[in-house]
Specification:
- The chain is mainly α.
- It contains 27 helices and no strands.
- It has helices at residues 10-18, 22-40, 44-57, 62-74, 78-85, 95-108, 112-120, 128-142, 146-152, 160-171, 179-196, 200-213, 218-230, 234-241, 251-264, 268-281, 286-298, 302-315, 323-336, 340-353, 358-371, 375-388, 393-405, 409-422, 427-439, 443-456, 460-472.
- Helix 6 (95-108) packs antiparallel against helix 7, helix 13 runs parallel beside helix 15 (251-264) and helix 25 (427-439) runs antiparallel to helix 26.
- The longest helix has 19 residues, at 22-40.
- It is elongated, with a radius of gyration of 27 Å.
- The protein starts with 9 loop residues before the first helix and ends in a 9-residue tail after the last helix.
- Mean pLDDT is 87; it is low at 6-24 and 476-481.
């Protein structure tokens, strides 16, 4: 699943579509195109439906079967996934996820013996390398054999990243939960572990399997919602976040996730009301204050955001490792409202706490360059940032612009050309490169960059400034930049 659910199916489905006889070709092609369009939008429900139809008219194809299985699980359609899984030959590349699906489906139907048997037959590979110990341990515990249950968890102690998960499961073996509830919780925790490793697709799959067993398992609702939100599906994520009970342990996490989803859906008023309600309900919750501050900053209410960060900083201990990011956020907010002295103090204090952070180095360096101040030190910070993040076009642009402000136009051209190659669709970078070209006498190339920059401009004021340069060159523009 490293390739991601969007990309993993493309080759197999294209080949299967072309292989169809004329009688099935039109239907196959229509389902294939509909499925691909849905995948591009991370719409797993629509993608699963279309690809399942495609699979029904396709000749046997292991890649198509496997990928349709993944889409069905991602969509939460475990019944369809189980039907596909039942056709999977033992030992095939998709047998791990297929066998896990069948075990969960049997357990969901109350067939504990069948689920235990399916677990014993699972290969120890892929997603089942850790799922199999979770299930096997719980089935042994349900039989009263705690020694066998603890032994079943041994694979989880083989590598450092999963030891904590293994210790947590071992400590809970005698918690008297039913296998259904215990396995649902265990799969959800495994999903959380994978999400922390940036493996969003398998995290979503395990969360969906957990929710099949316990439809309102709060942790699984949150894990699935977080994966969907990060995959660009805020409406679906919000629906899951809102299912978490208000008094549950996971409620505050769900509330913060819901605020982000509402913002992504451009429901700004609701997002702010939800964030403010969380602060009111938990006035000592620093995370609630930070979420409100972050939302206000996204909504460009910078003065209010700075005030929220004020309160959050007062609540954080002096040695908190989180102070640097809050200082950074407050400094950025203060810079936006024109309070540069206060902003600079925040940013430099943040930098003293986290000196090797490329985005922070870039923010300070570019802010100085834009103001024509501390150019030598700005250059030093930005050269450090470039070494730390050599493929970041925005940082390359900042360094190039600092060189420009220092009058080193040849060096500026080289760095700004590199920035434009890294981020060709950035209007600011193209505008800066145009200015540098003009300064070294490459006026035709400057005009070309400015034309690109006008089309890429995100606000009318910037667009008008660039249009003035196109009409009269830099001599008529603000040369003090």
């Amino acid at each position: 699943m490293r390739m991601g659910l969007k990309g993993i199916v493309a080759g197999a489905l294209a080949a299967a579509a072309l292989a169809q006889p004329a009688s099935a070709g039109e239907q196959k092609l229509g389902d294939y195109l509909a499925g691909r369009a849905a995948q591009r939008q991370n719409d797993w429900v629509a993608a699963s439906s279309a690809m399942t139809r495609a699979l029904s008219v396709a000749p046997p194809d292991s890649d198509l079967r496997h990928n349709t299985l993944l889409l069905a699980i991602a969509a939460g359609d475990i019944a369809t996934a189980a039907r596909i899984a039942a056709t999977t030959p033992p030992g095939s590349t998709d047998s791990p996820i297929a066998s896990l699906t069948l075990a969960v489906e049997k357990l969901g139907k109350g067939d504990v013996a069948g689920a235990s048997k399916a677990t014993d037959a699972m290969p120890s590979a892929g997603v089942t390398h850790l799922a199999r110990p979770l299930l096997a341990a719980r089935f042994a515990a349900a039989r009263g054999d705690l020694r066998a249950a603890r032994a079943a968890l041994d694979p989880m102690f083989e590598i450092d990243p999963t030891k904590d998960l293994g210790e947590l499961e071992a400590a809970r073996l005698d918690d008297k939960l039913s296998p259904v509830r215990a396995i649902a919780r265990g799969l959800s925790e495994y999903a959380g572990f994978l999400a922390a490793q940036e493996q969003l697709d398998p995290s979503l799959l395990l969360s969906r399997l957990s929710l099949h067993l316990v439809p309102n398992e709060p942790s699984a609702l949150v894990r699935a919602a977080e994966a969907l939100a990060r995959q660009g599906r805020p409406a679906e994520a919000l629906a899951l976040f809102d299912k978490v009970p208000a008094k549950d342990f996971w409620a505050t996490t769900a509330s913060r996730g819901a605020v982000d989803c509402l913002h992504a859906l451009k429901r700004s008023g609701e997002a702010r009301a939800r964030a403010e309600a969380a602060v009111k309900a938990n006035p000592k919750d620093v995370d609630a204050r930070l979420k409100l501050g972050d939302l206000l900053r996204k909504q460009k209410s910078y003065a209010e955001a700075a005030a929220a960060y004020d309160t959050a900083l007062a609540m954080l201990p002096a040695d908190s490792p989180r102070r640097w990011i809050v200082l950074y956020a407050r400094g950025a907010s203060r810079e936006r409202i024109g309070d540069w002295d206060a902003a600079e103090a925040d940013l430099l204090q943040s930098l003293s706490l986290k000196p090797e952070t490329p985005t922070l180095l870039n923010f300070i360096g570019f802010a100085w360059a834009e103001r024509g101040m501390n150019l030598t030190r700005a250059r030093e910070l930005l050269e450090r940032a470039v070494k730390l993040a050599p493929d970041d076009g925005a940082i390359a642009d900042s360094l190039g612009w600092t060189l420009y402000r220092q009058g080193e136009f040849g060096g500026a051209v080289l760095e700004l050309e590199r920035a434009a190659a890294l981020q060709p669709s950035d209007g600011v970078i193209n505008d800066h490169l145009g200015d540098a070209y003009w300064r070294v006498g490459r006026t035709r190339e400057a005009e070309f960059q400015w034309v690109r920059a006008v089309h890429l401009a995100t606000d009318p004021v910037t667009a008008r400034s660039i249009e003035a340069k196109l009409q009269q060159g830099l001599a008529a523009a603000d040369l003090s930049r």
